[in-house]
Amino acid sequence: MYNPFVSAPSSKNATEFDPGRPVGSFLEVLRGLFFAPKRFFVEFSAEGPLREPILFVLLVSAVSAVVRLALVAVFGVSFGDLDAGDMGASALQALLYVAFSPVLVGLFAAVYLLSLRTFMGNTGDYRQVYRLISYVYGALILLPLPVVNAFAFTYAMLVLVAVGVRYVYRASFLTALLTALVGYVPAALLFLTLTVYVTGLVFGR
Known about the structure:
The protein is an all-alpha fold. It has one domain (22-203).
């Protein structure tokens, strides 16, 4: 059986999404990201296939999109301004978000690879960084939640990336922090710009 982990001592590792048991594996990865990020990235292998990370990204986006649509419907009913047209536009926006989420992760990966190369020379490659960012992306499942969403992006793209670089690439604390911070700013601007653009495109605003 193919083992995607070069350094892992066991073929079963909670740091890799397993499509064979999607729910259990999905929850294990999220639990590691939120409650034991250091252990998660100590056990994480940058080498491996892209299929599992991409499926994980799609699942995170799908769950996030469903939660967002549910909240739109609940708030719309509660305040008496639920409009079929807006609901349809929200559904289209959610569909686009899910469909293009692997591309968004790819753009993030390019940004962080440039930052990684800036501070650590030729360390890492695009495939490795894509895998890392794909799992970091799991924290964005909180984006639909009011208040919490303000911290979700920063936790994912700054805190988790710093922890990931620190333990996956054996970087010093300062190097890991600088790598994450330098990549975080353009990643945040990219995400904000795309969100505003897609929202305006879908809702015609």
